[in-house]
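LOG
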Amino acid sequence: MLIHSLAGYLPISKGMVIRSQKFLNHEPIGNPTDKAKRLFEQGVDELIIQPADPLTGIDKQFLNVVEDISAKCCIPIVAGGSADSIDDIQQLFNAGASKVLLATLALDQPDLALEILNYFGPAAIACGLEAQLMDRHFELYSKRGQHHADKKVLEFLAKSDHMNYCEYYVTAIHADGTQAGLDVNLLKTILTHTHKPVTIIGGLGSPEHCLSAFQAGGHSVASNTFFNTDPSAVTRTIEFLKEKGLRVRKQ
């Protein structure tokens, strides 16, 4: 039986965790290390840490956040999003990341992405996708939704899935922060074109939403707003999934 997992998602701006809606209207909601410790204690299996701003490269403040969380929480960390060089990625590993996420670079510089995969090994490098539903197609964006990459999700997967990213982390921009439900259609679309694990992000607002994603074949579900603003969300979700007969990794 597939073992599912839950992930805490921590978008970082100016050293703070923020929440947003459709990548807009950033609102600080707390200290990253405090949030990370609480999520870890409640039972998430990993933490996803990304800059919330359309940055290029990794700055010292973001590295400090990753390093502090790594030092105080014994949990796998997926970090990155704006990394644009081998040096950036090495710094993230040095700061405590278990895996590094390539997002903008994966779309805009596939040759460099392949070089990075060959340098660090595919088990260490994941691909982050930001998708927006437009005219019945899922279009890809980069730089935290600021740049339309002029690529459809399926076109990108057809060209990149052979590159051996260890997994995909996919954010539905149109669902971000709404708590109205995960985009299960986006998840299914991606799963028809890859056998790699897929984590879906954006829109989680109830344990039932998690169940829908897992029943559709999702490997993991990540949340910022639901898990970080509802003190019992993680534990309630784990208990609900267990009652439905699903195996959750940490349990």
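LOG (cont.) second protein
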Amino acid sequence: MNVYLDLVFFLNFFLDSVLLFTVDIVLKRNVKKKRIIFGGLIGSSSTLFLFLSLNSLELFLFKFFVSVAMVLVCFSYHSLKELITNVLYLYFVSILLGGFFYYLNIEFSYSVVQNLFVSNHFRIPLFLILFIAPLILFFYIKQSSYRKRRDSNLYRIELVQGKKRYQYVGYLDTGNQLYDPYTKRPVHLLYDPTYKLSKKQKIIYVPYHGLQTSGIIPCVYFDFLIINQKQRVEKVLVGLSREPFHIDGVSMILHGDEILDHS
């Protein structure tokens, strides 16, 4: 079998650089691009494996030390904790990328013939690896950034009404500017199709105006609201939404005037 050393070196350098670039963005290390390139060059030194006779343990240790060297060259050393974090994230995105390519290879390298899986010797072309790898990691970066922003605005909420307690996941939306026009109380929004109004509850109808819609939303008072099992807000006004919120796992849209003052 012919091995093109320059091609193997370039592929390793490209993938290692992309992995380091991903770690840099996700962890917000803000290193210079030339350090990422130098780290990629260190990683591409793994082509030496082709000329070394190593057992499984030696190969693992060699790869590990190369990974640590990549991280040190790219991100420098500031603390042991930061070094471990950098190395772990490098391995995580490597597993993510490698696992995806392994899936593609398995998916397309076998055909079903009379209920049997038969290899067709398919291998992912080099140009496809070079094209897909950045796309996969770009998607991971975008999702990671979105999750961090989203999770920073999530709160565990407990609404108490008499002897009844209701637990929800709330999302702090600074765009929620809904107030009761008479009492000037901020209005939180709740979507819970299982919540039933009792005959004794007083309903307050609050008008709202959106970009392309307007109307009136029924609201009720709860005795108090507990934020993350710590802070407590007395006498909160909650609007009952008929439509679910398009945020995964969220049942409440919280008003910043009451949440930020108590968080």
